[in-house]
Amino acid sequence: MNKFKNTVFYIAVTGGFTALIFWIVSKGKILETGRNIIAPTSNGDYFKQFIDSLTHNLQHPLAILLLQIITIIIVARVFGWIFRKIGQPSVIGEIIAGIFLGPSLVGMYFPEYSALLFPKESLGNLQFLSQIGLILFMFVVGMELDLKVLKNKANDAVVISHASIIFPFALGIGLSYFVYNQFAPEGVEFLSFSLFMGIAMSITAFPVLARIVQERGIHKTKLGAIVITCAAADDITAWCILAAVIAIVKAGTFASSMYVILLALVYVLAMLFVVKPFLKKVGDLYATRDNLSKPVVAIFLLTLIISSYLSEVIGIHALFGAFLTGAIMPDITKIRNIIIEKVEDIALILLLPLFFVFTGLRTQIGLINDPYLWKITGFIILVAVVGKFLGSALAARFVGQNWRDSLTIGALMNTRGLMELVVLNIGYDLGVLSSEIFTMMVIMALFTTFMTGPAIDVINYIFKRKEVIIPKEISNSAFKILISFGNNEKGKSLLRLANSFVKKQKENTNITALHLSLSDEMHAYNLEEYEQEAFEPILLESKTINQEITTIFKATVDIETDITDIATKGNFDLVLVGLGKSIFEGTLLGKVLGFTTRIINPDRLLDKFTGKEGLFHNSPFDDRTRLIISKSKMPLGILIDKDFSEVNDVFVPIFSSEDAFLIDYAEKLIYNSNSKITVLDIEDQVKNNAEIETEIKTLKHTYPENIAVLNENNMKAGFLAQQNLMIISLESWKKLVDSQSVWLSTVPSVLIIKH
After folding, report:
1. Which of 288, 294, 612, 615 could join 738 via S-S bond, C-beta 3.0 to 4.6 A?
2. H/E element holding 111?
3. pLDDT band at 568, cuts 50/70/90?
4. Looking at the predicted structure, is the pLDDT value of residue 678 above 80?
5. Within a 10 A sphere around the Cβ of 374, how many other Cβ atoms?
6. Rg over CA atoms, the chain
7. Nearest partner of 491 among 551, 423, 537, 546, judged by Cα
8. Terminal-to-terminal C-alpha distance of the chain
């Protein structure tokens, strides 16, 4: 009745008001009498009119900007993914994506498309948006600095970081003496040009360096602490010097710049002694609340914008104000996390790639079209590497580091990345750097960042020692299990499963919990807290089941490779990884596996196989699991978790003679957890295989109540619902999936083992 009533009301209201609108418009035509109305002309070619209108819409500034953003984000993500896969920071791929879209490649070979996508009149919008992205990014960089670390390691860090600045700065000044006449823009003083060359040579990319340290697993070592501290001190010092250099360049002379520097000093003191205490009070007030309210977030972001505005007006660039605001944010991890989460995705994913492309549009590698110019570029790279690498390494050696660690510090401090591009763009905007020298310096920034990883590998190879992240106690165990988890619930299920295999043999076993995180999801300042949060539920679960565990935590760019590498180095006997129960949800075979479930004879548990032996055709595994399977060289168990909690009743189907190894795992469960094992004999595989039959008879003799063998025909209805776990080989699981059996939707949690 209500539906009919609502329908009548809807028709009456919409119909009545439509008639009213039509009547008003008809009467309104009378009002046009006596007015000079210009009617739209029509020659009858309505399709042409539509095309003209569409063309006009495509050329609208907003449409162009949105198309630019779409293109930039897609290309940047693709290049970033490619470079992550080859072990490089994704920022290098994003920078190269900018160069790819610029005049160096797309502009050179597809000039019509480039002119359509990046018309000159649209670059202003792109630049301003990219500057907003940089402001947000520098705000995050400032928040990532852990100033407490600077206090603890100030002595060594200041010596190394300042040496790593002054040495390349001096070499940059010296280099500018030789290239000034040929490459400095007309009308630019030598002082301005040389200062920018010096600061461009001496910058270090703290965010990229911090992520490389995490990825290498050395963040908890003495070396990692020193290099992070050096980079932080380097960042603060370099940005203060850059602010002074900008002031000198804008003022024209050193004497005139003193007024700007004094005003900047007043601004910095106000931020440190007025704004910082105010923000701390706000932070303390809201630190205990679950969520920051929008007005509180507005206070922090408004402080960022005002600080950036003041530093821009003073003459030391808005980015310095953003960096300083981040550095003085309340030292409360929760608040910093929330603000970074709100800011970083927009800055890094949406806006920062615009800066890379804008830099790429300015980078014209085609200008370096002469062997002499490439020699100059090579010389710039040489000066940059010698200055930063050797300056840092020699200073580290002087304060007592060994040669290996000193060279590693030098290699890491030589990382320039995005920070170098920021400096170069500021110099280009101020007219201090010409297009040629700008392009050469961009190439230098890419080269020095790209070489960091390979340089560390060479240093490790020469000194024949790598940083070890495998704890020593693991190697002393007779049976070792590695569980690798992404989220806490899967980690707890994997831990319970691992414990089921060893709970009565704890003195001879080791269970290691491994948590890997993509490095671009982490921040240097809260690394220890992130690790603690990741392992806290797992450690609580280990206490509940009375199982000691070892923990390994590492940031990485390649989770699949690192899981298998750590497993191999630790010589683990079994590696356990997890899949979620979502694989069981919905239409299992229709949605997850990509084919339609076929109704089979309910009297038989399994259908006859279709003969499909292709291992990953319509694979039931996600991409990450497939990669782990393909790279794994040791026994690997994949737990499909369907609310797994215990192993009282375990189901083991035997499909072929190759499944004999499953009996070993069944025996471990019987001995350690008193599990009741039901072996399903598929097509008399057990009966016809002497090895399997002998092993089962031996188990029956020792544990007569714990093992039984059934064939397909005497399996009772509802049997699977009574089981806690199914253990199956990888090959048999693939056969089972290919057979498209309806009983897949009723199986319990599944442990798939690749032997």
Report:
1. 612
2. helix 111-117
3. confident
4. yes
5. 13
6. 33
7. 537
8. 64
Given a contact cutoff of 8 angstroms between Cβ atoms, the answer to whether 443 and 378 are in contact is: no
- C-alpha distances (whole Å) from 453 to each of 89, 90, 408, 470, 571 are 9, 13, 10, 21, 26
> Would you say residue 47 has pLDDT above 50?
yes
The pLDDT value given to residue 469: 59
Report the range out of 241-250, 385-394, 639-648 with the highest average pLDDT.
385-394
Q: Write the pLDDT tens digit of every residue in 88-141.
A: 878 888 889 988 998 888 888 888 888 888 888 888 888 888 889 889 988 988
Give the 3-state secondary structure of 537-589. Answer: HHHHHHHHCCCCCEEEEEEECCHHHHHHHHHHHCCCCEEEEEECHHHHCCCHH
User: Could you tell me where the beta strands, DSSP code E, fall in 489-539?
Assistant: 509-518
Q: What dihedral angle (degrees, nearest 10) is formed by the CA atoms of 395, 396, 397, 398? A: 50
676: its two tokens: 């009741």
Distance CA 307, CA 313 (A): 10
- The enclosing H or E element of 168 equals helix 154-183
Q: What angle do CA 497, 501, 505 make, to 5 degrees?
A: 135
**How many angstroms separate the Cα of 559 from the Cα of each of 163, 243, 556?**
36, 40, 6
What is the rounded distance in angstroms from the CA atom of residue 153 to the CA atom of residue 403?
20
CB 653 within 8 A of CB 680: yes
Find, among 353, 270, 323, the residue nearest to 91 by Cα.
353
The pLDDT, as a whole number, for residue 447 is: 92
Nearest to 210, CA basis, from 135, 141, 133, 137: 141
Angstrom distance (rounded) from CA 12 to CA 426: 64
More confident residue, 115 or 716: 115
The full 3-state SS of 709-741, as one line of letters, equals EEEHHHCCCCCHHHCCEEEEEHHHHHHHHHCCC
pLDDT tens, position by position, 390-443: 989 998 888 888 888 899 999 999 988 888 888 899 999 888 999 999 999 999
Which pLDDT band, with edges at 50, 70 and 90, does 596 fall under?
A: very low
List the structure tokens of 203. Answer: 């910058």
Mean pLDDT of 221-243: 80
Burial of 287 (0-12, 13-18, 19+ CB in 10 A): middle
Q: Which amino acid appears at position 561 of this protein?
A: T
Rounded to whole angstroms, how far apart are CA atoms 467 and 460? 9
Nearest to 484 by CA among 322, 625, 310: 625
699 close to 706: Cβ distance less than 8 angstroms: yes
Task: Identify the pLDDT of residue 582.
Answer: 40
Number of Cβ within 10 Å of residue 716's Cβ equals: 8
Specify the 3-state DSSP secondary structure of 638.
strand
Please name which of 237, 200, 160 lies closest in space to residue 408, comparing C-alpha atoms. 160
DSSP state of 185: P
83 burial (CB, 10 Å; 0-12 / 13-18 / 19+) is buried
The answer to whether residues 246 and 426 touch, using CB atoms and an 8 Å cutoff, is yes
Strand partners, 640: 579, 750
Q: Residues in the chain, how many? A: 755
pTM over cut 0.85: no
- Can you spell out the DSSP letters for 297-356? HHHHHHHHHHHHHHHHHHTS-HHHHHHHHHHTS-S-HHHHHHHHHHHHHIIIIIIHHHHH
Question: How far apart are the C-alpha atoms of 720 and 193, rounded to whole Å?
Answer: 77
Q: Rounded to whole angstroms, how far apart are CA atoms 167 and 202?
A: 8
Contact 435, 78 (CB under 8 A): no
Cα-to-chain-centroid distance, residue 506: 37
